Amino acid sequence: MxxxxxxxxxxxxxxxTAPARAxxxxxxxxxxxxxxxxxxAGLMGIVADEAKDAGAKLVGISVEMLAHKAYSGAxxxxxxxxxxxxxxxxxxRADALVVLVGGLGTLDEVTEVLxxxxxxxxxxxxxxxxTEGFYDGMRTQLRRMDQEGxxxxxxxxxxxFAPDGETALRYAEEAAEGAADDACDGSPVASV
Length: 192
Known about the structure:
7 helices, 192 residues, disordered C terminus, alpha/beta, single chain, seven-stranded parallel β-sheet
């Protein structure tokens, strides 16, 4: 499976990096491919190193303005002209998407993939690894949107929140496998 990961390119505290390392290690040990922002910086680099050390293939999707931070050990590195093209490539190459802790760029990426999923433009699993309750505020806001009729699809069809890396990976695998099974038998694609 190609698992696209959105996360910070900043150096972070161990309470954030340890769960990301565990997730990346499990991703590699299970033979998945890491598709990510292609950077060696911060959490992006940590996730790439850990996944690679555990046997994962690495597909980096960088952007021209950040080419100087491109990860040199990727199996494949694509450099896009702008952030919009980068996001499109990250989604296109994904069988599932997992969101680790991150800043505005990560928030931009996850809200875009949720908006596209809301409109039925993809049905790939989206899982947020809620390390240390990092995404509690987002979960609260999304629940309110769901309860007050702002979402045309139930929230649990759009996104799942996971307490740890193992659960995040399991959610992504189960949902992607269910979608593949449904596609093979002609049934509608399964939701997350």
